[in-house]
């Protein structure tokens, strides 16, 4: 029983930290640039494909991950300079339409280059099995994901709270016009933030690739969760993204793990069998609705 | 006068058209996460067309291709276009049963034969069976039934079944449990779920001796990767229907799938001349091994070819065409099979295991036969007119 509970807690933590990598970039772009970027998930997909390709060619998973992060950050910067920059002044509907078009372009490009079927990306051999400590076993690769997630969260925290760039980012998120008036080069800052967000996406894609199918459309399924996270956490706030991610990760995992069994105790078999999975599937949306009811701007709103 | 001449020539053109060419409307899922399946069916179909020199039953053939994007509403529009505007003689290609059930009535109303190269919903096998529907692959339950039988015969009696919480998943469970009678625990997941850590922890706690999963497409890839990473493959034998263990999944997962048992009606190592030619030509044309989906697309083309040939190109005689389809005068790459009274196959199902082939590739190997001349469970409910 302790094994089960501890394992599920780690699972929730791991899933939450991965969502954080996606949500951090998304919330900054949304918060600072006031830009809804639906194509955020496409950068995640591109990152996973780059990692798979480079890892296959070089034979090293780490090289693959690094190449994916750098490559995708460059792609992100180029995208910002050529396309997205023109969208900041437009309303949200234009942004949604344009970035939706980017999703389609990205999906078709990936299909042209890599084909329709999922590509292979496996963890390094040393981490492919479970790690066993005193009778408790947990997949080694998931532990690595937790480590990477914690490291990135710490790094982001330090950058945002302790550096000049971080100060600009916070200033931009809380009041863009004022930040501009104070002489911050917002244009460059935006490109930098976007590239960093793209790099984080790629890191998430590359780290999740060995657990998930690397295939066309993989970005859309996870993007919805990332949006839920930033809505819960408060748009523009890194701290909100972290708390939101962990909440979503843990509620989703615990919901799936516990609800079917708890319901079985109280309800007749067939009803519980149908209701359990259905409730577990919507648990994070119930969480979001509840939080929005009491805190309409999310848990840690950046503006205010 | 000119108008009459024009009308007459149009009339002439259209009647000549009907006798001169065969039009096939190929509607399948060619984009999105399910695209790998549709693309394989298409490539199998097109390979047959190439081998037949672009002709079906000695008539020049035109294959119109459309993408349903895995959405029933899009599929219905494309089917409408095929049936009303292009006036196709046959339709084929649909991967998913929910789309099949949406499009079926349109084809039947237009009295157009639908040759299913994949989707085999129980509805069309049972009460809603229709003379205009033929399935050249299997009834949806069949591969699950075969796996249930094998797991039962091997003496496993503590099995966990994992499947998405949707009608296809429930069908998989009922198919599996039709032949597996031991203790079982079902875990239903969300459709399109990415992470299975919570379910895997439960499975570890249950300690089953075998696990049967039906998670189509990317879900299966995610599940197998995470199952192996959790170290569960050492104590729990993994079983799946062929669709969760074919080339599309193997290509994405690779070596971790070694030793996994699965059921199918076809395998690329079947030793018959038709299959050898199909597999060799497919590899030459597309640079990869065919999956069961590709074999089904190929057989669909071969069935249409045989039927058009046997009615000597007279496609307007629907009754004769139906007889020719039912008679099925072609040699399938799976070996012998025949159509049941509900137009679904009666055929053998085999056990495959994933291993390394002579060239060191990770792929399926046929182990033995599970069912001989197996029919589906719904045929008795079918009153075919």
Detail the topology: elements first, then pairings:
The complex is a heterodimer of chains A (304) and B (385).
Chain A: H1 2-33, H2 40-58, H3 61-82, H4 92-114, E1 130-133, E2 136-139, H5 140-162, H6 164-174, H7 176-181, H8 186-208, H9 218-233, H10 238-266, H11 269-294
Helix pairs in contact in A: 1-5, 1-6, 1-8, 1-9, 1-10, 2-3, 2-4, 2-8, 2-9, 3-8, 5-6, 9-10, 9-11, 10-11
Chain B: H1 2-20, E1 22-28, H2 35-51, E2 55-56, E3 59-67, H3 72-85, E4 90-92, H4 97-109, E5 113-116, H5 122-125, E6 133-135, H6 142-153, E7 158-164, H7 167-179, E8 183-189, H8 197-206, E9 210-213, H9 218-229, E10 237-241, H10 247-253, E11 261-264, H11 273-286, H12 292-310, H13 318-327, E12 338-339, E13 345-356, E14 362-374
Parallel strand pairs in B: 1-3, 1-4, 4-5, 5-6, 7-8, 7-9, 9-10, 10-11
Antiparallel strand pairs in B: 2-3, 11-13, 12-13, 13-14
Helix pairs in contact in B: 2-11, 2-12, 3-4, 6-7, 9-10, 12-13
Quick recap:
The complex is a heterodimer of chains A (304) and B (385). Chain A is mostly helical and 304 residues long.
If you had to describe this structure to a student in words, what would you say it looks like?
- The complex is a heterodimer of chains A (304) and B (385).
- With 304 residues, chain A is an all-alpha fold.
- Chain A has a single domain (9-120, 139-294), classed as ABC transporter involved in vitamin B12 uptake, BtuC, CATH 1.10.3470.
- Chain A is 76% helix and 3% strand.
- In chain A, strands 1-2 form a two-stranded antiparallel ribbon.
- The longest helix of chain A is centred in the N-terminal third of the chain and has 32 residues, at 2-33.
- Chain A starts with a helix and ends in a 10-residue tail after the last helix.
- In chain B, strand 4 (90-92), helix 4 and strand 5 (113-116) form a beta-alpha-beta unit.
- The longest helix of chain B has 19 residues, at 2-20.
- Mean pLDDT of chain B is 91; it is low at 10-18.
- With 385 residues, chain B is α/β, with parallel strands linked by helices.
- The chains are: A mainly alpha (304), B alpha/beta (385).
């Amino acid at each position: 029983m302790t094994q089960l509970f501890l394992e599920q807690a780690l699972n929730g933590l791991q899933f939450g930290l991965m969502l954080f990598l996606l949500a951090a970039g998304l919330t900054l772009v949304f918060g600072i640039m006031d830009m809804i970027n639906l194509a955020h998930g496409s950068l995640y997909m591109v990152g996973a494909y780059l990692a798979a390709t480079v890892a296959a060619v070089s034979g090293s998973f780490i090289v693959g991950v690094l190449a994916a992060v750098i490559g995708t950050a460059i792609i992100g910067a180029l995208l910002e300079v050529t396309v997205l920059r023109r969208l900041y002044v437009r309303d949200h509907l234009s942004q949604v339409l344009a970035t939706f078009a980017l999703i389609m372009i990205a999906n078709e490009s990936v299909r042209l280059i890599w084909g329709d079927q999922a590509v292979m990306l496996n963890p390094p051999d040393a981490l492919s099995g479970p790690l066993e400590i005193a009778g408790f076993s947990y997949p080694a690769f998931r532990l690595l994901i937790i480590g990477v997630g914690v490291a990135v969260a710490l790094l982001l925290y330090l950058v945002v709270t302790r550096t000049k760039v971080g100060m600009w980012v916070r200033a931009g998120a809380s009041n863009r016009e004022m930040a501009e008036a104070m002489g911050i080069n917002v244009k460059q800052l935006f490109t930098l933030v976007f590239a960093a967000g793209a790099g984080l996406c790629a890191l998430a894609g590359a780290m999740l690739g060995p657990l998930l199918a690397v295939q066309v459309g993989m970005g859309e399924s996870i993007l919805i969760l990332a949006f839920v996270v930033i809505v819960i956490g408060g748009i523009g706030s890194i701290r909100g993204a972290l708390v939101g991610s962990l909440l979503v990760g843990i509620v989703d995992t615990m919901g799936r793990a516990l609800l079917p069994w708890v319901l079985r105790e109280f309800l007749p078999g067939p009803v519980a069998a149908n209701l359990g999975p259905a409730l577990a599937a919507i648990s994070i949306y119930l969480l979001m609705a509840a939080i929005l009811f009491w805190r309409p701007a999310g848990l840690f709103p950046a503006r205010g | 006068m000119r108008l009459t001449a024009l009308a007459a020539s149009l009339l002439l053109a259209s009647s000549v058209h009907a006798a001169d060419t065969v039009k096939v409307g190929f509607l399948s899922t060619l984009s999105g996460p399910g695209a790998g399946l549709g693309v394989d069916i298409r490539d199998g179909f097109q390979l047959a067309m190439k081998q037949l020199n672009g002709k079906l039953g000695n008539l020049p053939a035109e294959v119109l291709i459309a993408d349903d994007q895995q959405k029933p509403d899009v599929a219905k529009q494309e089917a409408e276009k095929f049936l009303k505007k292009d006036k196709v003689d046959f339709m084929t290609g649909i991967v998913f049963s929910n789309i099949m059930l949406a499009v079926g009535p349109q084809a039947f109303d237009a009295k157009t034969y639908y040759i299913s190269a994949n989707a085999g919903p129980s509805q069309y096998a049972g009460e809603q069976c229709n003379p205009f529907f033929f399935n050249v692959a299997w009834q949806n339950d069949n591969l699950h039934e075969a796996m249930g039988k094998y797991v039962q015969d091997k003496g496993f009696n503590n099995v966990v079944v994992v499947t998405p919480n949707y009608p296809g998943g429930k069908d998989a469970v009922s198919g599996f449990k039709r032949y597996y009678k031991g203790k079982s625990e079902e875990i239903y997941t969300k459709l399109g779920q990415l992470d299975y850590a919570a379910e895997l922890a439960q499975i570890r706690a249950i300690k089953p001796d075998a696990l049967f999963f039906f998670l189509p497409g990317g879900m299966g890839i995610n599940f197998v990767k995470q199952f192996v990473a959790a170290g569960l493959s050492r104590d729990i034998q993994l079983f799946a229907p062929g669709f969760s263990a074919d080339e599309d999944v193997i290509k994405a997962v690779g070596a971790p799938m070694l030793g996994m048992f699965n059921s199918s009606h076809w395998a690329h190592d079947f030793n018959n001349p038709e299959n050898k030619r199909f597999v060799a030509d497919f590899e030459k044309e597309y640079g990869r091994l065919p999956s069961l989906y590709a074999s089904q697309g190929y057989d669909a083309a071969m069935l249409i070819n045989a039927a058009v040939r046997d009615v000597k190109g007279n496609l307007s005689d629907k009754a004769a065409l139906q007889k020719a389809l039912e008679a099925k005068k072609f040699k399938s790459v799976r070996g012998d099979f025949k159509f049941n009274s509900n137009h679904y196959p009666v055929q053998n199902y085999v056990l495959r295991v994933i291993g390394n082939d002579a060239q060191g590739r990770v792929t399926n190997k046929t182990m033995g036969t599970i069912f001989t001349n197996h029919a589906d469970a719904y045929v008795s409910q079918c009153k075919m007119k």
